Amino acid sequence: MNIVVIGAQWGDEGKGKIVDYLAEGAQIVIRFSGGANAGHTIQADGKTYKLHLIPSGIVHPDKISILGTGMVIDPQALFDELDALEKQGISWQGRLWISDRAHLVLPSYKALDKAMEARRARPLGTTGRGIGVSYAMKAQRDGLRLADLYGSIYETLSAEDRAFLEPYRARLKELTIDLPTFMAGNKSKRKLFEGAQGVLLDLDLGTYPFVSSGSSAAAGASLGSGVGPKELDKIYGVFKAYSTRVGNGPFPSEFTPERDGNLGEVIRELGREYGVTTGRPRRCGYLDLVALRYACVTNSIDALVLTHPDIYDGFDEVKVCVAYEIDSERTEVFPSSADDLEKARPVLKSFPGWKSSLTECRRFEDIPNRARDYMSFIEEYTGTPIHIVSVGPGRDQTFFQQEPWTSQ
Ligand code: IMP
Fold it and tell me: Is the pLDDT of residue 210 over 70?
């Protein structure tokens, strides 16, 4: 059986934690897109792990972890991360493999990423990790894959690029596999496909041009891992009880001081909303159900995973965005134009706060009625059930409504 986990907002929904939770039942964990722009935090056995490139399954000693074809890999960041994991007592040798069709990020790409960003009339707020340039080189057919580290393509690289790659070449080669063959040989295993970023940062579905350049959508799990789309049995979309966005771009439900006072700062501090990769403070806003329903529909999300509802534990009321007003017209359709999204004002619906501590809940039955009502509304609006809830960083603070590794 194969499960896909994607972010259903602008990334940072808590996917790392959910993948860690679901990895318990998996045999293989495959990260299928993005690069060192991502930041996944996991707390396990009293330790905190911060991952950028390595799949979150790595902290489970008996699981195989794969970096998939859809990723762009900075070798220096990769080996730095592996060294850091080793220092934290995680051994990865013999159970971490990389698709030889994945592309590499070269130092010149990172420099170009930053230079292009500085030249843009409307900067995107990229992480500066060379991600967009790598995917552009791939699309231009000028990229460098792991499979091409030895051979004629490598010979065409500049002396500078070859000097950078030289210390990594043999180490990378040892880790590469032919992923489609590996996947075909492991058809009967339980596999978990781990997305990066979120649907609204996906190159095709996201708030273009304010997106990342990989495929963060569920469909990316297929191409990015070398399996056909029919192999994806269940798709989970992870969302936070509020919204955040790092970097620039439209954010219709973003808190504003005029309307919401200091709510933005309060939520940022309660949720520790600072980027794992760049340390940037995240922009915060109301849960946007227009965007969430769009994510559900465009990704065939079977079930939602709710994270951080406990942030609202002390609140008198909890609001969600149920429509946009654009040029005085009300709409529930998620617009394709960034200009329209910039103009959109959120139409808010209020729920009474539950005023009790969700962090203590360990089963669905423990969730107080008011919080259940709020969740039922989200399910109804999006037409998608909430199957998993996370109420804190600990492994025991995640629980499910329906056993994840079953085919319903
Ligand atoms: P890039 O991926 O570095 O090109 O950045 C493009 C946009 O995606 C910027 O707004 C980044 O802040 C955002 N972004 C990239 N990776 C992540 C992530 O893992 N979480 C949240 N935002 C991200």
Answer: yes
Verify whether residue 52 is a known catalytic residue: no
For residue 114, report the distance from its CA to the centre of ligand 1, in Å.
13
3-state secondary structure of 149: coil
| Percent over 90 (pLDDT), the chain | 91
Alpha helices in 130-256, H assignment, sequence order:
131-140, 152-155, 159-175, 179-185, 219-223
In the residue annotation, 373 being an active-site residue is answered as no
pTM for the structure as a whole: 0.96
At 287-339, the pLDDT tens digits run 999 999 999 999 999 999 999 999 999 999 999 999 999 999 999 999 999 99
| Residue nearest atom 1 of ligand 1, based on CA coordinates | 126
Q: Which of 395, 390, 374, 375 is nearest to 310 (CA)?
A: 390
Q: How confident is the model at residue 393 (pLDDT cuts 50, 70, 90)?
A: confident
Cα of 72 from ligand 1 centre, angstroms = 14
38 lines ligand 1 (CB under 6 A): yes
In the block, which residue shows the tokens 């804190």? 392
Structure tokens at 406: 């079953």
Task: Tell me if 37 CB under 6 Å of ligand 1.
Answer: yes
**Residue 264 Cα to ligand 1 middle (Å):** 20
For ligand 1, pick from 13, 17, 51, 126 the residue to mutate: most ligand atoms within 8 Å of CB. Answer: 126
**Ordered domains of the chain (ranges, CATH):** 2-105+174-234 (3.40.440.10), 239-400 (3.90.170.10)
d(CA 53, CA 40): 9
Of 10, 15, 113, 201, the one to substitute when testing ligand 1's pocket (max ligand atoms within 8 A of C-beta) is 201
